[in-house]
Design a protein that fits this description.
The structure holds two protein chains of two kinds.
Chain A lengths: L1 H9 L2 H7 L4 H26 L6 H7 L3 H13 L8 H41 L8 H7 L1 H12 L8 H5 L6
Helix pairs in contact in A: 7-8
Chain B lengths: L9 H40 L1
Classes of the chains: A mainly alpha, B mainly alpha.
Protein name (chain A): ATP synthase subunit d, mitochondrial
GO biological process, one term (chain A): proton motive force-driven ATP synthesis
GO molecular function (chain A): proton transmembrane transporter activity
Chain lengths: 174, 50
């Protein structure tokens, strides 16, 4: 698990909390997960410090019933901790990790693309001239269909825009 | 020779014709369509705004 050790060393939780802009729920679940991990580590440390040997000679000298001490010693000697095959779990975790990393990378790439487009939009907005400085030519460039409409209108002999007078009034004296 | 007097106006007539044609061409091709274009643009951007 060299990769996992490297990940452990690289994770800086304060940075994750403060800079990544995570949601409240995500931060809470992350903190809960960290707490669980810390508790497990603490309990593991406590248990591993406890003595694992039994002083049978002491019990032999104290107890009258030697047979039960022998029985207990035999049971202890015969006791073998059950071994669990955790490789399947580890494999599943590794697969999950790989999937999560892949997903995260895909999301990061997608976000990069979105960011680029947003920055392009921002630059466009910043470079845009104010509405007062806009000319009819600019509008025509942005929407060539206006030019087309003018062409067809002139071809058909229509020189007025329907609804224009109602909207903007008329300066004609006659 | 008085019978030649009408021909003295050929110069004026031809120039008038030329100027008229030029003016009609310029107005119909460039100047008047520009007003339609301007009105249409104004109408269009006002529609966008509302």
């Amino acid at each position: 698990m060299a990769s996992r050790a490297a990940t452990k060393a690289a994770v800086d939780f304060t940075k994750i909390y403060s800079t990544l802009g995570l949601g409240k729920e995500t931060v809470a679940s992350l903190q809960a997960f960290r707490k669980r991990h810390a508790d497990a580590q603490r309990i593991h440390g406590q248990l591993s410090q406890q003595p694992t040997t039994v002083d049978f000679s002491h019990y032999r000298s104290v107890l009258k019933n030697q047979a039960i001490v022998d029985d207990a010693e035999k049971l202890l000697k015969d006791f073998k901790p059950t071994t669990y095959d955790v490789s399947a779990h580890v494999k599943a975790i590794d697969q999950f990790e790989a999937k999560a990393v892949e997903k995260a990378q895909a999301t990061a790439a997608q976000i990069d693309v979105e960011l680029q487009s947003l920055q392009a939009t921002l630059a466009n907005i910043e470079d845009a001239r104010p509405f007062e400085d806009l000319t009819a030519e600019d509008v025509g460039k942005a929407h060539p269909e206006i030019l087309e409409t003018v062409k067809t209108m002139v071809k058909k002999g229509k020189w007025t825009i329907p609804g224009y007078k109602e909207k903007f009034g008329d300066l004609n004296v006659m | 020779m008085p019978q030649l007097v009408p021909y003295f106006f050929v110069n004026q007539i031809s120039f008038t014709f030329f100027v008229l044609v030029t003016l009609i061409f310029l107005f119909s091709r460039y100047i008047l369509p520009y007003f339609v274009y301007l009105s249409l643009t104004r109408y269009y951007i006002t529609t966008l705004n509302s």
